[in-house]
Specification:
alpha+beta, three-stranded antiparallel β-sheet, single chain, Arc Repressor Mutant, subunit A, BirA Bifunctional Protein, domain 2
Length: 484
Amino acid sequence: MSQVLHPIEQKILKTLAEKKNLTPEELASITKLSLDQIRRGIEWLKFKNLTDVQESETNVVTLGKKGPEAIEKGLPERQLLNHLRSLDGYSCEINDAKNYLKNEFSPAIANAKKNGWIEIHENRMMLKGYHDVTPEEKILKTVSKSPEGVSANELEKNALDSLKKRPDLIAIISKKSTLVGLTEKGIDASRTVPDNLDSVLISDASLTHDYVRAIDVEADAPLAFAARSHPLRDVIDEVREIFVSLGFSEIIGNNVQSSFWNFDALFTPQDHPAREMQDTFYLKDIKAGNVAKPDQIRKVSESHKKGWNYNWQSEEAKKLVLRTHTTCVTIRELADQQYDEARLFSIGRVFRNEKLSYKHLAEFHQVEGVVMGTNVTLRDLMGLQTEFYHKMGIKKIKFWPTFFPYTEPSLQSMIYNEKLGKWVELFGMGIFRPEVTKPLGIKNPVLAWGGGIERIAMLRFGLQDVRDLYENKFGWLRSVPKCP
């Protein structure tokens, strides 16, 4: 069955049949179509297997910030050479050369020695050998003559590598290029294109009546990607729905918290490494006014003095931080509302001053839940966690004893990852220590657990790098199925 071609497609086919392989820019210039029309027509023809599109990437070398100065004055070693040539005996004291070249002295003497231009005796240097133009100088001269840059493949590799090590002399830009040609099927199609195409070139509004096109009712419809929520947002919504279905109420707190609620209320000593600048983001030159009720501050202070044997400082507790966990929101809610029984959860962003890697982010989402009651036990906590995981579709679960700063006893939940074929850590959990609850007037035991939602998303989507969740690659976003 013959394919119906748009006038833009016909013009491109006819041009490529005459000129062979061309770039989109060349096609636009020859056909007098806009670049957008050319790109659109190429995609249509590519979908019909009529064009062959070859994409390539090349590194182009241009002058850097210090390049023009190096062209004008010469590289540091050339400046040193010219300085020695201007002196009697072609020699000078090392300190004189250092005063002349200032910050450029070290690279000048190092490269001049490498080139065999100078020799040094005690505190004096003098000229020697030949002083030909170096490969590095040739590259700078070549690049300076081409404002658009020179392909790295055309330049001597060792010299280019040497220039890369020198700050701001050259800049390397990656440029992508596209070359469009016809397939055999496209060559056959081009023979059916009429010669008088000028009357059918569109202005993207309408066609003249000099040329009538048929409509191919069997043509494939274009793919349409409707807007959708981000896969990570889907996981967050799923977690929220599960907690609500288990009878929990959501609480929300600020991203900025005082050190009192983020650390002190959770029995974290004020000299603990986690409170250092390398682990926590502090707000500069600003402190909280009233961090808590006077009775809460007094009892927490006494707890620290008794438990950690140091003088607790109220000014340290007033420092504002980007919260490192959502527990600060939970513990404040329990302290202020004085529940007898409660089922609460919180989902939100938390911040850690960590180096970005495949498993660590400086900002991520954390979910936390607490259950408070007269007779709640660690077995209840394990049962709740098991039910939560089952609702997430995770069937193989086990718990290991572990240590966490503000819960005792504490457990680490482990789930079996079928794709990885091994057990992996997920949520931490435990019962709040008396040193946490008693100073805040919380009378009944509190079961608590929490963890990163990105970790759940990685397991759900089979990702090996947590950063993939935030790179927004359209191919991946479109391929991820919607959460149930």
